[in-house]
Description:
The protein has helices spanning 4-20, 26-44, 46-49, 54-71, 97-107, and strands at residues 74-75, 90-91, 94-95, 112-113. By secondary structure, it is mainly alpha-helical. Helices cover 61% and strands 7% of the residues. The protein starts with a helix and ends with a strand. The strands form two sheets. It has a two-stranded antiparallel sheet. The longest helix has 19 residues, at 26-44. The protein is elongated, with a radius of gyration of 15 Å. Helix 1 packs antiparallel against helix 2 (26-44) and helix 1 (4-20) packs parallel to helix 4.
Amino acid sequence: MIDPKRDVESWCDLVEECKSGYSDSLAEYDFDLHVRDFLQRAIDSSALQSVNGYGDFRESIELIDREFIEIATVEIPLANGKGLGWWHLRLPARGGEEFADDVRDRIGVVIGRI
């Protein structure tokens, strides 16, 4: 169930965590990104587009997205990324030991450690 207010806050919290370096596993990072999938569904919803405050809702997401783009500067090399939102194709440049090791071992990309 999409809850726009909760999901915007969750997206913001994830971006804040990424600023200091994501510290959980790569699998958890992928799971955490699903909140942005929910937000995209809300953005694309014709029912929500007609609700008062939709413009502010969308603008708040765009602000957080811009922050995420500044932080998640490492592109994930995928053979086929079709069907995935752009946020699934980026990683923060720094992470905790577990995250950095997972990224190296599973994706073959080296990121900085916090």
